[in-house]
Amino acid sequence: MKKMKLYGSSRSPYVRKVLIAAHETGAIRDIVVEPMVVTALAANPTMLSVNPLGQIPTLILDDGQALFDSNVICRYLDLVPGKAQLHPREVAAEIAMMRLLALGDGLIAALMSLLSEKSRNQPDQSERRLAALKEKLPLIFAALEAEAPGMMHAPFDMAQIAIASALSYIDFRLPADVVWRDAYPSLANWFAALSQRPSVVATAYFDELAAAAASSGKQEKAGKA
Q1: pTM of this prediction?
Q2: What class, spelled out in words, does domain 4-79 have in CATH?
């Protein structure tokens, strides 16, 4: 059987959502990960050739069809084994899960916007945009803190995958800018427990760009030695 191909980056929280879901459903055995980096500064021709949005993650099925958007891909992976492991079957439960999933995805979007703004040169940063993001983040955290006790005992699902991907992204990219654990202890306890889950451990963020730059620098020094 031909394997599926996942275009993605180990720096992306949306890609991590897909990888966690793939491990949970067992679909990871049928996926080959193709490292791919995209930026807002330049279109990636390879990605545009398979996804008109030019975004990651993109999953190429064994018949050549392309799926994009992390939630679409995760839903597909959850259906393939024939078991609704990550999406509740009962309507009310699924709506409740999707509400939390929206919170997790919203936190990811806010964090990526914050990172994008802080990556600009100081004169180009928008103080109004930074202020708006900093006003929004505590509200998201407060909502997640209220949900944390219930999540601690709930079946593992897509909402928890999104929230875990968001919180771990803070540790990866914004540890000094978003300090949250002391203010939201229930959420911190839930996240600490979930971080030990094998699918979460196996999909830890990794900065392949920094690693490649470091490797290139070492090779350059070796060449001059």
Answers
A1: 0.91
A2: alpha beta
